[in-house]
Amino acid sequence: MKLSIDDSWKTILQLEFEKPYFQSLVEFVKQEYLTHSCYPKGGDIFNAFNHCTFNDVKVVIIGQDPYHGVGQANGLCFSVNEGVVHPPSLVNIFKELGEDLKVPYPKSGNLMPWADQGVFLLNATLTVRAHQAGSHQGKGWEQFTDAVISKISEHRKGVVFLLWGGFAKKKIKLIDRRKHHILQTGHPSPLSANRGYWFGNRHFSSTNSLLQQVGEKAIDWKIP
């Protein structure tokens, strides 16, 4: 696994890369990609970092695992490659976005335009074996991504953290609430959304209000 990650992140995470757990993780991922079909493709593993530099982070959305179906995952949480059918959680994200900001439902499920504006779309686990959800959990990715969240909390100010669902909410302990904004709601999956825990959260408009209060440019949430 080539560590193709933006220099801004390399600088802030250098000590993490040198720790024994990360070296073991790299070896594990290399072997998995050599012996199994895994997602996202190797060059996309750090897409969240490469499309949103450390100093550009304005919003953090935390997912759990990459999609494990063929051609879906592109290295950004909840996002899929161009032309891929939108998974149910993404459908509900776009429905809430439409209700909140009155934007049309997008054709593409690729969230790269969000990342390029400073929305850091981080999965807790950055890789997965094809058709085996959670197969790369417990191998070191969570320790790494927890460190990433902690570094953002420590070195940045005024970031809006969107914690969707129980798993993401557990990350609240890593965030300094005196320096940052935290918005919490249910997970956008049908199981949660159909029970009334997702729709109506208005996180997109609320995020923009919080950003504008500190003089930051609002996110254009529309997907072209």
TrEMBL record:
Function in brief: Excises uracil residues from the DNA which can arise as a result of misincorporation of dUMP residues by DNA polymerase or due to deamination of cytosine.
Domain Uracil-DNA glycosylase-like: 50-211
Gene Ontology molecular function, alphabetical: uracil DNA N-glycosylase activity
Family that this chain belongs to: Belongs to the uracil-DNA glycosylase (UDG) superfamily. UNG family.
EC assignment: 3.2.2.27
Catalytically driven reaction(s): Hydrolyzes single-stranded DNA or mismatched double-stranded DNA and polynucleotides, releasing free uracil
Signal peptide: none
Keyword Secreted assigned: no
Lineage: Bacteria, Pseudomonadati, Bacteroidota, Flavobacteriia, Flavobacteriales
Active site (UniProt): D65 (proton acceptor)
Gene: ung
Claim: Heme is one of the keywords in the record: no
Enzyme class at the top of the EC tree: hydrolase
Record keywords, A-Z: Cytoplasm, DNA damage, DNA repair, Glycosidase, Hydrolase
Protein name, entry field: Uracil-DNA glycosylase
